[in-house]
Amino acid sequence: MHRHPPRNLGVNRLRLLVVAAHQDDGELGCGGFLLQAANYRAQTTVCVLADGCAGGNVCLREQEAREAAVALGADLIQAGLPDTRIPLRPAIKIVEKVIAEVEPHVVLVHAPADTHQDHRVTARAVMSAARDVPNILFYEGPSSRNFVPVTYVDIDAVIERKVDLIRLHRSQISRRPFDAWARTTALYRGMHARPACQFAEAFHPARQFLVPAGLSLAGSLDSAQSKALASWGASRPGGNGRPIISCASVLDQGTTPK
Length: 258
Ligand SMILES: [Zn+2]
Hints:
With about 260 residues, this protein is an alpha/beta fold. Helices cover about 40% and strands about 20% of the residues. It contains nine helices and eight strands. It has an eight-stranded mixed beta sheet, sandwiched between helices. The site of zinc ion has 6 residues, from α4.
């Protein structure tokens, strides 16, 4: 397991952990959310479990993941487990170790209903390893099945950057048009999220803590960041201060209730 770049966690920043089976999965599922969160100084760590050998050259895929992490301003951990054969217990141990180090407020992972065995195992591993994390959100991907979202993130401001992010995974774009998938899925989900936005990412929470407005994020963020988060989405045209999602409402979940 190797990390790029070195750990650099701020004490007053919202911490997000994305766990993905393969190098491009996290960007496909929640790249827009991560780009939005970066605008609000969130600290993101992406943990990729498999080495990616079944989908192309391992060195190239690792390089593509590093380029995407730089674009996201995220830390990247590539665990190097065998592609298409991610073992459950080692995956749990790796994610437990990452969670202990990162102490995320929100973990994002594949939805468990998926035709790819690695995606299913990754979701199961996170459900065990993230037992003490207050917020777990499932993201969707091209191989998700029966995904019924209830939580939306407005990604209008970053849709082009999300597509560019997907295109950094050159080895995968040459196999299938994942960039087109990202755009059309965001448009499709944006229709569900109307009238808040045109493009959206959609999530299904496995666990989500709601806290009273004004008390949220106490102890985890400074007041300027809390204010910025509170205004995120509320300022969207048509949102009338009541955005359907809003990164604010996802991020505004507070820290672990003890
Ligand atoms: Zn995958």
